[in-house]
Amino acid sequence: MEHLTLLLGIVIVTALVFDFTNGFHDTANAMATTISTGALRPKTAVAMSAVLNLVGAFLSVEVAKTISGGIINEKGISTEVIFAALVGAILWNLLTWLLGLPSSSSHALFGGLIGATLMSVGTSGVNGNTVVTKVLLPAIAAPIVAGLAAYLATKLTYRIGSRTDEKATAKGYRAGQIASAGLVSLAHGTNDAQKTMGVITLALVTGGVLAPGANPPLWVIVSAGLAIAMGTYLGGWRIIKTMGKGLTELRPQQGFSAQTGAATVILASSHLGFSLSTTQVCSGSVMGAGLGRKGGVVRWSTATRMFIAWGLTLPAAAVVGAGAEFLTRQGNVGIAAVAVLLIAGSGTIWTLSRRKPVDHTSVVPDAEAEPAGVVTTAIAAVTPPPPAGAPADLLKATILSPGGTAPEPTRPATV
Amino acid sequence: MHIDWQALGTVFGVSLVATVGLVGLFTLGIVSLSKTSETSGSAGSAASAGSAIVARSGAYVCFALCAAAVSYGIYLIVA
After folding, report:
1. Which residue of A14, A240, B43, B49 has the fewest CB atoms within a 10 Å radius of its CB?
2. CA distance A60 to chain B (A)
3. Threshold 0.95, pTM exceeds
4. What is the residue extent of each domain of chain B?
């Protein structure tokens, strides 16, 4: 490891930070419905999810050799590009967390990579077809598949169980839900922790520390697993709140159907070669389960905001990634500037989040008769400040740069 | 552009069938288990005790199948 340069060190730390944001951004996928139906207490749920994520990171022997799944040509990219991509992904993850919107962390990473690669190598570095087949199409298919499955499953479970006492069966449903939530956590650990291991390994390869095609060293596996587990344990309570209570109200049967649907779709898709985003699958199944109960309501205003965030994830992360790459190309000063901007941006978002803190006390099941609008209006009340605040300024600051230079990207990278 | 409709269709079909099947199975288990607790509550004749045993073992079969599905899920993750 004596070849570790400062830049490489920065990239590794940034990758671990991304892994950490990935963890707390995606806690909701496995645990939001488990918490909102009261199957597990909030702290217990995130602890369980964290442990399973950590276990998941060690489980798979299949190494994440390609982090982008062919979306970009990984051969030509330099360490700076990876750094810029990670900056874009982290900032977008933090911003959507501030707004409490579940969005795909993988798409954020893809977006950052695409933006940074475009800025660095030009359009030849990005495989447009793969973007459509691996990002756009799955983004449309995931919520439909998961939603339909959860919808039908909810219908069925209400039909079969219509003549039983709801209180007597709730315990059973909760147990089932914990099992399927555990599966989602485990799958998340294997997929997403591997992604970060892949990023760090790629950075080490581009930095010349590892031979191309090498497996991630043990310390990479351990640190990536720990980062994602710590992020998960911290709990993205804002997103958990949206997914568990903001989109729809879930009863134990629905929570069980939603979580089982999500686990099934995630496992089926990752093993039949059509990868779907965990976040989008889980959001879809929550909505499907919400619609499946007679009288169930989905709050479409929240859902619409979530869909918009999905659509924006890739381009927004790409723009930030491109801007960051533009700066890093200016040499060490630029890299330092990007690092400072990243820290400042994260700090600002964190400060803004303290204004309206959302923690584990906000996500427990309510006393029965909560009027339907409360959560929606609360979220609506939280939403306005951020876009006007500092994250927007920060975005502007980084967006400005690619605006002027984007039209001439065919030049080969001189980095 | 090559879109793998077959893979998409397979994911769609497998997910739908597996989800609905599993949830249905689990619900059957829960329902029959709650029925046994109802019947055992009333002073049972031999016949109702017999049906309670059937319902109870049926429930355990359902849960065992669900547990098998979960194990298969873990196997998929590990493999």
Report:
1. B43
2. 5
3. no
4. 21-78
